[in-house]
Amino acid sequence: SDLLFPGCELTASTKSYTFQVDEEDDSDHILALSVVCLTDGAKDECNVVEVVGRNHENQEIAVPVANLKLSCQPLLSLDNFKLQPPVTFRLAAGSGPVHLAGWHRIMHREDASFEDDDDLSEEEEEELAPIMPAKK
Question: Where is the Nucleoplasmin core domain (predicted)?
Fold first, then answer.
């Protein structure tokens, strides 16, 4: 099910926001970032927003996703940039306020017993055409 991510606001006094889910939750979660924009009160300065997460080796990595400036680019559409929680949004430069919005999808894992039904029987496997090597 999709839920609206009400978003967060990054400012000079609140430089980061972490979105996380309950560690005991066995569902798969996706957080999609749709838009990053400067809001009322922003100065004409560069505001750099980073996404901080973990790579496949569990090392923290920070990636800039937006560089906003009131006079030339006050808003950026990120086309549902998908992230896996936990993830932190950080205002790396500037004083904001910068608003982030998107959605959160929860995919409940089904009971593992259905996976047995997906296996092909021996008769069905024999009916499949053999894989032929590519012609050179």
Answer: 7-105
